[in-house]
Amino acid sequence: MAMDESEHERLGMNRPIARRSFIGGVAATGAGLGALSPLARASEPLAAAGAGPALAPDTSTYPPVRSGLRGQYPGSFESAHAVRDGDLGADIAAHDTGEHYDLVVVGGGISGLSSAWFYRKALGRDMRILVLDNHDDFGGHAKRNEFHHEGRTILAFGGTMSIESPFPYSYTAKALLAELGIEPRTWEHYRREDTYKGLSGGVFFDKESFGRDAVAPGYGALAWADFFARAPIRADIRAELTRLYTAKTDYLPHLDPIAKAEALKRISLQDFLLGPAAMKREALPFFAGMGFRNNKRVDTCPAYEVAHLPIFDGMEIAGQIRMHCDEFHFPDGNASIARLLVNRLVPGALPGVHDQESIVTARVDYTRLDLPGAPTRLRLGSTAVHVAHIGTVTAATEKAVRVVYMRDGKAASVTAANVVLACFNNIIPYLVPELPDAQKAALGEASKVPMQYTNVLVRNWEPWRKLGVRSLMVPNGYHTRVGLDYPMAIGGYASATRPDQPAIVTMIRNPNQPGLPRKEQHRAGRHDMLATPFETSELEVRRQLQRMLGSAGFDAAQDILAITVNRWPHGYAYTYDTLADPDVPEAERPHIVGRRPFGRIAIANADAGAAAYTNVAIDQAERAIGEVLVSRGLT
Fold first, then answer.
1. Is 229 exposed, middle or buried (0-12, 13-18, 19+ CB in 10 A)?
2. Which of 63, 165, 412, 602 counts the highest number of beta carbons within 10 A?
3. Could you tell me which residues come within 8 angstroms of residue 409 by beta carbon, excluding any fewer than 6 positions away?
4. b/e per residue, 484-499, with b = 16+ CB within 10 A?
5. How many CB atoms lie within 10 A of CB 168?
6. Which phi and psi angles does 623 have, rounded to 5°?
7. Is 102 exposed, middle or buried (0-12, 13-18, 19+ CB in 10 A)?
8. pLDDT digits (tens, 9 = 90+) for 141-171
9. Going by C-beta distance under 8 Å and a sequence separation of 6 or more, which residues neighbour residue 229?
């Protein structure tokens, strides 16, 4: 949608906020991370929300406070794309640093940091480990966003948001969390649900699809008949949705529960609604904004995966799994897990032994992550571009692998006894060209799920209170889910407790292209995301918040204080589904074939487990380190 000058001014696009002083997520006036000055008061905790004035960190030395375009920002992925395109390869001239490590880990996300953790546990704390990461911050998708306003520190998650999974955590993952001082069962102790008392989920009905712009509160809280009766939609659409959510009809009466399950695995939710459920197509836009597991959409999600919806209440369906793990949410999402791992691995950067409470307000000294002489070093802004064995390698070979990486536009190399690739699967065939062709093909089979988490610091959340909602589903919106931050108090930090206080609004975008096969939707969404400048994202944020909240007094020009767009074009690990993926034996699945160890090189990431969950990243790290030990004859 084009923007005229009057809209530009009305929405506040010309107002100074925390956004435009950054180029590609890095302060325009700051030095690169390779030349940081010591961080002032780095070991001191941050001021908690609601506390008195405190010194805000410098954007040139403290990445969590950088605003604007974050996530996989410009400058973080170009070297990897050059490897993919053949512009960087084995023949690149690289400076030999002379550094040798017992283990080099490529990727500083939770799987990479966990790999370093498991290696140290197996062989001792004095093992020499180097972790390389292409971003200016560690954690991978588990990214911390910090905002500082009027002496308050306000936290948000920029990616992986919670400890949660549709299946129980493994013993390995539970044990790691426990050793880090995390007890998921204690989350209820920190939640402050009374903050949003009287508020519910809601739906924003847009005029293009439903006749007029309006917020309908009570989604999931009111009886479905009552909710749809109040929704500002056409009578025929209201009747269809009310029937679907209340009728409790068996739409496959001729099939037994097992056959029902098999049938629902082979049909998309969209085809089920328009077919067996006989829904009128005019009601389909209501489901367009729904994102299901692994960001499947209404046209790509097997109906079986959402058989918990009220639409299926009249059907007895076999085999539905109802177990879940204990859940826990940090104010900065699972970035706190990454920070606790760094606290154990590189204690000089985060002094003291932290736990689930103290880590929330602790401040990392990024200048101490990569100090000579430290057993474990974390080197940021460093993109691996080539990984290869050095000659003939036996179990006794010490310098077995050479790793070349780009940093500040220059190539450098280190050697290692072992390497763990905890980066994305789709780049590995280009990093390790000597891999077998079948393994390369398997690694490139999946298509990462693009996701975007935009955090908006607003002056207050009075409009949400007036509308009676804390979150909104937005069918057909640029951002399809929008909501206030989790209300909680932990370790001296507290989120906003009153409507007149500044708060975080999180807006989630899934730029898929309906109508295409699922993997093609991901690729199209990725291309769209990479081509979208920050200014476009800012405009869409302002437009959407104004449309949704304007009737309750929200003014985009006055009430938006800061915007951080965490874009993840190469987002979550791909999870198989029963519509798009062939039913093959587990051992033949691409993720199993792709993660096979190759000499002294092992693979650890969530892609290797074909599931976008933190516990999977941890489990795959433990498996990869087991393979590392086998390759040395150590087990």
1. exposed
2. 602
3. none
4. bbbbbbbbbbbbbeeb
5. 13
6. -65, -45
7. buried
8. 999 999 999 989 999 999 999 998 888 899 9
9. 238, 242
Pairing mode, strands 601-603 and 469-473: unpaired
Six-digit token string for 589: 């699945």
Instruction: Round to whole Å and give the CA distance between 594 and 607.
Output: 9
Q: What are phi and psi of 195, to 5 degrees?
A: -55, -40
Q: Return phi, psi of residue 396, to 5°.
A: -95, -5
Q: One-letter amino acid identity for 3?
A: M
Instruction: Say how many residues make up the chain.
Output: 635
Please determine, for residue 328, whether its predicted confidence score (pLDDT) is greater than 70: yes
What's the pLDDT tens digit per position in 331-374? 999 999 999 999 999 999 999 999 999 999 999 999 999 999 99
pTM of the model: 0.93
pLDDT confidence of 445, banded at 50, 70, 90?
A: very high
What the block records as the tokens of 434 is 């000597």
Hunting for tokens 């940091």 — which residue is that? Answer: 113
Is there a contact between 612 and 606 (Cβ–Cβ < 8 Å)? yes
Tokens of 544: 């959407």
Sign of CA dihedral 276, 278, 281, 285: negative
Judged by DSSP in three states, 307 sits in coil
23's enclosing H/E stretch is strand 22-23
Distance (Å, rounded) from C-alpha 314 to C-alpha 328? 33
